[in-house]
Write a structure and sequence with these properties.
By secondary structure, the chain is an alpha/beta fold. It is built from eight helices and 16 strands. The chain has helices at residues 2-20, 37-51, 66-88, 100-116, 118-135, 142-148, 150-166, 172-184; strands at residues 187-188, 193-194, 199-201, 207-208, 213-214, 219-221, 225-227, 245-246, 251-252, 257-259, 264-265, 270-271, 276-277, 286-287, 293-298, 301-306. It has a five-stranded parallel β-sheet with strand order 1-4-7-10-13. A five-stranded parallel β-sheet has the order 3-6-9-12-14. A four-stranded parallel β-sheet has the order 2-5-8-11, with no helix packed on it. The longest helix is centred in the N-terminal third of the chain and has 23 residues, at 66-88.
């Protein structure tokens, strides 16, 4: 019996090996020349510790001073991030045929420049923390936000990934933001440009596309999409402005979709729940869905009830 099973399993293995030899993209076998997702996720954890050094202590590091703790983190990020960037730079056409020394030198340059940008990221995260605290009466203190708010974590990962994206690093920024997406339900492309005092409340189901531009003091609730009007053009749309621009001091309530690269939401606008917008909205505008209607069925009769004309409401939790 065991011999019979072993022979069948051997047949399965041979069949799979034959299938791997067809030369398709999914048949790629050079694992050592591909980025290591586990390492990148660990780097995200270490970068989170660097940004919030007093909040997230690595118990594996037995250090006695802030300098020693930070030095160990920075050295580990420098070594491993440089190694991962060295691998992914081959995806960039400018380095596809470059020799290893040139790629190593460029990877080191990018890694150092990225690390130098962490104070800027921390500056922005401080404003995001303040925006979350000011904007959410359910937040009893700021530590609660740092430790537990998925929106705050998604913003942190995006700000880290965005700097790598700006520095021309392929693949790694997307791995970072998609990992955050898998944890939080918030999908922010690393190419999106986001200003200070950005607040995501609740967050589940939010989608922010690659060419989105968001100004300062913007608040977004769950289920919001800042997307493209159409992706049927596929790769021909690459590098085009496909996603909207959200100017300063805008609030976008739950379930709203704002689409299109030419769509601009002007300063101080308020976009009500479940709005569907494909054209620009001028500054100071309040957008709401007119005449919301409820239906009730009882006594074998269907009854309806609408909001009065002029009533304005926004759905929040």
């Amino acid at each position: 019996m065991e011999k019979d099973i072993a022979e069948k399993m051997s047949t399965v293995v041979e069949t799979l090996l034959e299938d791997y030899s067809k030369g398709r993209t999914i048949d790629k076998m050079d694992a050592y020349n591909q980025p290591n997702k586990e390492v990148i996720v660990r780097l995200m954890d270490e970068l989170q510790r660097i940004v919030f050094l007093g909040y997230y202590k690595n118990k594996e590091f037995k250090v006695y001073t802030t300098r020693n703790h930070l030095t160990m983190l920075v050295e580990d990020v420098m070594f491993n991030l440089k190694k991962q960037i060295t691998i992914v730079l081959r995806y960039n056409d400018d380095y596809a045929d470059a020799d290893l020394d040139e790629i190593n030198e460029k990877a080191e340059e990018i890694t150092l420049e990225f690390l130098k940008r962490i104070p800027k990221i921390r500056e922005y995260m401080e404003t995001d923390l303040q925006a979350a605290y000011d904007g959410d009466p359910a937040a009893y203190n700021k530590d609660e936000i740092v430790f537990s708010y998925p929106g705050f974590y998604a913003i942190l990962v995006n700000r880290l990934a965005h700097e790598l994206h700006v520095l021309g690093v392929p693949l790694i920024p997307r791995i970072m933001t998609e990992h955050a997406h898998s944890l939080t339900g918030i999908d922010i492309h690393p190419g999106a440009t986001i200003g200070k005092y950005f607040f995501i409340d609740h967050g589940t189901g939010i989608v922010i596309g690659e060419t989105t531009v968001i100004g300062d003091n913007v608040k977004i609730y769950q289920g919001v999409t800042l997307g493209a009007l159409s992706t049927r053009g596929g790769q021909t749309l690459k590098h085009l402005k496909r996603h909207p621009t959200i100017e300063n001091n805008v609030t976008i309530y739950s379930g709203s979709s704002i689409l299109g690269g030419e769509t601009v939401i002007g300063e101080n606008a308020v976009i009500g729940s479940n709005s569907f917008i494909t054209k620009s909205i001028k500054a100071g505008t309040r957008v709401t869905i007119k005449n919301q209607e409820l239906q009730f069925s009882y006594d074998k009769t269907l009854h309806t009830e609408s909001l009065e004309q002029g009533d304005v409401w926004f759905y929040t939790i």
